[in-house]
């Protein structure tokens, strides 16, 4: 997917969901970003969310 600015330059859109971009690339062959970037971004977000949830469990867990 590409868009054009008013001055004629072509821009690539960032995928809204990296997992969706992986699936599009796997099944249709038309992905926006390389698979390594998609998997790296997904892994990064998973680690961040896991650390946030560990923090919240430690802070709010009722024992």
What does this structure look like?
With 63 residues, this protein is mostly helical. It has one domain (2-60). Helices cover 57% and strands 10% of the residues. The chain contains two helices and two strands; from the N terminus they run E-E-H-H. It has helices spanning 18-27, 35-60, and strands at 2-4, 10-12. The chain has a two-stranded antiparallel ribbon with strand order 1-2. Helix 1 runs antiparallel to helix 2 (35-60). The N and C termini lie far apart (51 Å). The mean pLDDT is 76.
Summarize the structure.
With 63 residues, the chain is mainly alpha-helical. The protein contains two helices and two strands, in the order ββαα.
Secondary structure class reads: mainly alpha
Major sheet: size, sense and barrel closure? 2 strands, antiparallel
SSE topology string: EEHH
Helical stretch count? 2
Strand order of the largest sheet: 1-2
pLDDT average, as an integer? 76
Map the helices and strands.
Blueprint (H helix, E strand, L loop, with lengths): L1 E3 L5 E3 L5 H10 L7 H26 L3
Antiparallel strand pairs: 1-2
Helix pairs in contact: 1-2
């Amino acid at each position: 997917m590409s868009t054009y600015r008013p001055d004629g330059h072509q821009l690539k859109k960032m995928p809204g969901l990296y997992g969706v971009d992986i699936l599009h690339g796997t099944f249709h062959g038309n992905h926006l970003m390389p698979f390594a970037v998609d998997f790296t971004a997904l892994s990064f977000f998973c680690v961040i969310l896991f650390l946030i949830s560990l923090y919240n469990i430690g802070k709010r867990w009722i024992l």
